[in-house]
Specification:
It is a single chain. This protein is an alpha+beta fold and 387 residues long. Helices cover 25% and strands 18% of the residues. It folds into 2 domains: 219 residues, 2-Layer Sandwich (Glucose Oxidase, domain 3), CATH 3.30.560; 130 residues, FAD/NAD(P)-binding domain (3-Layer(bba) Sandwich), CATH 3.50.50. Helix 1 crosses helix 9 and helix 6 crosses helix 7. The structure holds flavin-adenine dinucleotide. Flavin-adenine dinucleotide (FAD) binds next to strand 2, helix 5 and helix 9.
């Protein structure tokens, strides 16, 4: 039930029954999907005419509030309003309604201190407003994101390693920081110079026809979904030499898509620390899936009547779906965390963020992370807090 509970917490809007890869849902969506604007309704019909199965993209977006705040087509930024339901407007607001929960802001965790026997975390060391502080809670839940949780663990002294260097905490398996994954993804612009795309909020479609196989019984390729609306200024950041009016024209006549493929776990794809620096050694894998998805979608959009189809892969400057650095697993020899995200090495430490994911799948990860967080919280409540 946890994924559905996460969808409820983030007030996700969607529609069951359209996506051929849809898993079982224990609770239907509480809100109807964000409706297609006319150019996107046309794109949906065009893809359907090819025998494909475009489906409404599940969105944690309160579209009425979003459009009231501004006619903004791009949403890949922290939203200070109520339109985009993110960690702050969704779960954090719900948590802070509980009188037992206190939020400390501006606190930067540097390292964790282990107990003399090494079996538990004795203290959290952090800075706040320039002051060094410590906290010694019964349970420690580390949720600093896949990069920073690994960094905090690697920077923490373990029994044998002194304060710098060494393997850090929760790292008997030597897997902390390893298996860093992100998605292999591309932006694809399907352009028809005869038709404008005047949508304001266009991110209402996805396509999973190539998620489980390439459509011909071959290997999986990935997920396709709409991007926020690209404008000429965004194109200019990538295409320096073209005149601005040409970029505005292209953007105004494009339907903008995001192709997303799985990055596979690789122990040599790593987050490491080097003194104060964080080193990201991202070794991408499975690029052939992205090539395959790019090829088949280019053919599809051409068949839909778009004479120009442009694509560009995202590079390592946009690791927006980072995961995998503190993976969960059944064997302490190969994974730092058990399936409830408890560190095998330290009984009172849980690491609950994108780091626990053992694989990256080929979809946006936030709800899977939230679902596991709810599952782990329920486990902690039953196992640690019930007495
Ligand atoms: C531009 C962009 C767009 C995205 N769009 C989507 C989307 O549409 N759908 C989707 O599913 N996913 C999306 N993602 C990915 C999604 O945001 C992440 O996968 C998700 O937030 C990861 O959750 P997390 O708990 O692992 O880490 P985070 O959400 O990054 O949380 C980590 C928190 O820890 C804090 N922190 C870090 N280090 C320290 C420290 N040393 N001390 C104290 N606090 C610390 C950070 O400030 C942060 O608040 C997007 C990401 C980006 C960047």
């Amino acid at each position: 039930p946890w994924y559905s509970k996460a969808e409820q917490l983030f007030r996700v809007r969607g529609c069951l029954g359209e996506d051929p890869t849809e898993p079982f849902h224990s609770i239907p969506y509480a809100f109807k999907p964000v409706p297609d604007e006319p150019p996107i309704a046309r794109a949906r019909a065009e893809l359907k005419s090819l025998g494909l199965h475009p489906a409404s993209l599940p969105l944690g977006v309160d579209i009425e509030a979003w459009l009231k705040e501004g006619k903004t087509g791009w949403d890949a930024f922290p939203n200070t309003g109520q339109g985009k339901v993110d960690a702050q407007t969704g779960p954090l607001a719900a948590a802070l309604a509980d009188a037992n929960i206190k939020l400390e802001t501006g606190a930067h965790v540097g390292w964790l201190e282990v107990s003399p026997d090494g079996k538990s975390i004795a203290a959290i060391h952090y800075t706040q407003n320039g002051a060094q502080k410590t906290l010694s809670p019964k349970l420690v839940i580390l949720s600093a994101g896949a990069v920073n949780s690994a960094v905090i663990l690697l920077r923490s002294p373990s029994a044998g390693n002194g304060k710098t260097g060494g393997k850090g905490l929760a790292n008997r398996s030597d897997q902390v920081g390893r298996n860093f994954m992100n998605h292999n993804s591309s932006a694809m612009l399907a352009i028809d110079p005869r038709r404008r795309n005047d949508s304001v909020y266009q991110k209402t479609l996805m396509l999973n026809d190539y998620y489980l196989s390439d459509g011909k019984g071959g290997k999986p390729l990935g997920n396709v979904q709409l991007l926020g609306k690209i404008d000429g200024n965004m194109l200019r950041a990538n295409v320096k030499l073209a005149p601005k009016f040409a970029l505005d024209f292209m953007a105004g006549h494009a339907v903008d898509w995001y192709l997303m493929c799985e990055d596979l776990p690789d122990p040599e794809s790593r987050i490491m620390v080097d003194g104060k620096e964080i080193v990201m050694q991202w070794r991408r894998s499975n690029m052939q899936s992205l090539e395959g998805l790019t090829k088949v979608m280019r053919e599809n959009f051409r068949a839909c009547g778009y004479p120009i189809v442009l694509s560009r892969p995202f590079d390592k400057r946009t690791p927006s779906h980072q995961c995998g650095t503190v993976k969960m697993g059944n064997d302490p020899a190969t994974a730092p965390l058990d399936p409830f995200c408890r560190a095998y090495d330290h009984r009172n430490l849980f690491v609950v963020d994108g780091g626990f994911l053992p694989t990256s799948a080929a979809v946006n990860p936030a709800l899977s992370i939230a679902a596991q967080a709810l599952r782990v919280a329920d486990h902690i409540r039953k196992m640690e807090l019930s007495a």
